[in-house]
Amino acid sequence: MKKNKLHRFETIFWMAVKVILYICIMAIYVFVMGRENFALMQLSRTMGITLTTYVIVGLLFLSIYGKFDIGRRKSKPIIYSLALAVFFTDLISYLQLMIMNTVTPSIYAFRLSNLGELVLAFLLQLVLIIIAVYAGNALFFKIHRPERCCVITSSQENLNEIIRGIRKYKKQYEIVEIFDYRDKMLLRKLKDIDTVFIYNIPVHLRSEIMGYCYRTRKNVYFNPEIEDIMELSSEYYLLDDISLVNYNVKGLTMEQRIAKRCMDIGLSLFMGLITAPIWIISAIVIKCYDGGPVLFKQNRATINGKIFRVYKFRTMREHVANRSVTEDDNRITKPGKFLRKTRIDELPQLLNILKGDMSFVGPRPEMLENVYTYTEELPEFRYRLRVKAGLTGYAQVAGKYNTTPKDKLMMDMMYIENYSLFRDIQLLFQTAIVLLKTDSTEAFGEEDKKEYLFREVKEKELE
Description:
- By secondary structure, the protein is an alpha/beta fold.
- The chain folds into three domains: 142 residues, no CATH class; 77 residues, 3-Layer(aba) Sandwich (Rossmann fold), CATH 3.40.50; 183 residues, no CATH class.
- 54% of the residues lie in helices and 12% in strands.
- The chain has 19 helices and ten strands.
- The strands form four sheets. Strands 2-1-3-4 form a four-stranded parallel β-sheet, sandwiched between helices. It has a two-stranded antiparallel ribbon with strand order 5-6.
- α10 packs antiparallel against α13.
- The chain starts with a helix and ends with a helix.
- About 3% of the residues have low confidence.
């Protein structure tokens, strides 16, 4: 009975929880920083401006990193997102507060005591975030049972791929059925299903299944194709009184190109300056380890298929075959393991950005042999070359080591077809999350293969 009442007012309940959490986070900042800045604890101009700054900047970074969306994501990703959003909000509010506290802004205004208070405030906020996220997810999954799900696909290989993702969310989804999309009785078998996963089936047949799910109010997840990306970037258009969906061929405008190039040049110069000590130390360590060259150079593809030489710090032994890296690869040197793990090996690509071969944000430049292989298997792969290759991008932020080429392509196409300068800035900040998470290299286990078996519909059953 209590659960039913909570379901009725759940939206209001979770909104209240979020508001209380955000207010508590801000209150911690005000209370801790107020011990050294007394005006912050009184009704004053300092309090008003600081709180306004904190709210506005906080909302901005929550839109960049993600909100307190319990039930939709696992606890750790939510903690990473909220922690980074709060960290940057604290930092910017601190800078604003310190500037207000001195008539002549200078480095002396940023006292060590205030820095200590800032660190203390963030640590207390981090503890609160961790408690709130784990408690929130625990409560959410106590209220909600896992959705009864089915997977509709076309082969065991495709089933293995989608199961790899679903099995990470066992509290959200319970797989009860596996179906071949060619099953003539398919729609009738979906009667007692809450959620339908559709993976790698012909688009025209997917539409029929989705129509049924819409009529019967079932949740649907499906992997997008290029046509879907076009629809997502389209807009509703009325031609007199005729309803149409309009997709216009997109490309970066002259203003967007200028703004993007200016950001690339300015940011690469700034990053090169502040990381100069890391460059020097890395070069010395690489050279001292085996006496080989410091930089690794390789041909890659960028906009319109243009070939350029990408620069990286060398992480492999000399004169070894250049192929995809595997876990515990013996070609990687000891310094190389650290450089790869911390992404320091990517720093020399700042030179590629300055030269104009790459941008800070865009599809990652693939090895040429991968471009040829992927394009042969997946012709749409060439669409990635409509923009400059990038140091980071949506596929790098959201994808993982074992993300399939097709899924990476769809991520890149989502970026290309929905480009904005704000999106570039958002992805630059989100790249910090990549340093906090570890890429999953796990294979699909034998137990899972036995538990989830694809039964292909026989020809006689199709008649």
